[in-house]
Design a protein that fits this description.
By secondary structure, this protein is mostly helical. It contains 6 helices and 3 strands.
C-alpha cells in the first residue's frame, strides 16, 4: 500500500495500471485468436518459435515463456497433434528434443500476427508517436529496475 506521499501513490498506481493493462490486452488478443482454436499458451509458443527462432529444446522454450515443463509438454503435444510443430532429437543429446515449426503453422502464424497488429492498432490509435516513445522509455526503465532486483527480493 502507498504511504500517502505523491511518489508512493504514483508508483502504486503505475504498478496496478501495468498489471491491469497487460491482463486486459491479453484477454482482448485471446478473444481474437480463439476462433483459430488456439489458447493463449498455444499461440504464445507459436509466436515465440516464429519470432525468436525454433530449434530450441522443450526445456529452453519453457524457460523462455516462464512455464513449467509438464505444462509445456502438454501444449507441445497438442500443437504437434495439429501439425504445427514437430519434435526432433537434439544433436548430441538423445534424451532432449528440439521444437520446430512446420509449414502448416505458417498460415496460422500470419493470422495471429494480423490479429495482434489489429488489436495494437485499435488500442493505440489515438496515442501520438511521441507519447508512445516516452511511454516505452519509462517502461524500459521499469524493466531495468525489475532485472536489477530479480532474485534479490
Amino acid at each position: 500500500m502507498p504511504d500517502g506521499s505523491d511518489i508512493s501513490q504514483a508508483r502504486w498506481r503505475l504498478g496496478v495500471a501495468i498489471a491491469q493493462i497487460a491482463r486486459r490486452w491479453r484477454v482482448r488478443l485471446d478473444q481474437r485468436i480463439l476462433p483459430f482454436g488456439l489458447t493463449e499458451s498455444r499461440w504464445l509458443v507459436l509466436l515465440s518459435l516464429a519470432r525468436r527462432g525454433d530449434g530450441v529444446t522443450q526445456k529452453d522454450l519453457a524457460g523462455r515463456l516462464a512455464v513449467e515443463g509438464p505444462t509445456m509438454v502438454r501444449t507441445l503435444d497438442w500443437l504437434e497433434a495439429q501439425g504445427f510443430v514437430e519434435r526432433r532429437a537434439a544433436p548430441g543429446d538423445r534424451r532432449a528434443k528440439t521444437i520446430h515449426l512446420t509449414e502448416a503453422a505458417r498460415p496460422v502464424l500470419q493470422q495471429i500476427e494480423a490479429e495482434a497488429a489489429a488489436v495494437r492498432a485499435e488500442i493505440l490509435e489515438d496515442i501520438p508517436e511521441e507519447d508512445l516513445a516516452m511511454c516505452l522509455a519509462v517502461l524500459d526503465r521499469v524493466a531495468q529496475g525489475l532485472a536489477r532486483t530479480e532474485g534479490g527480493g
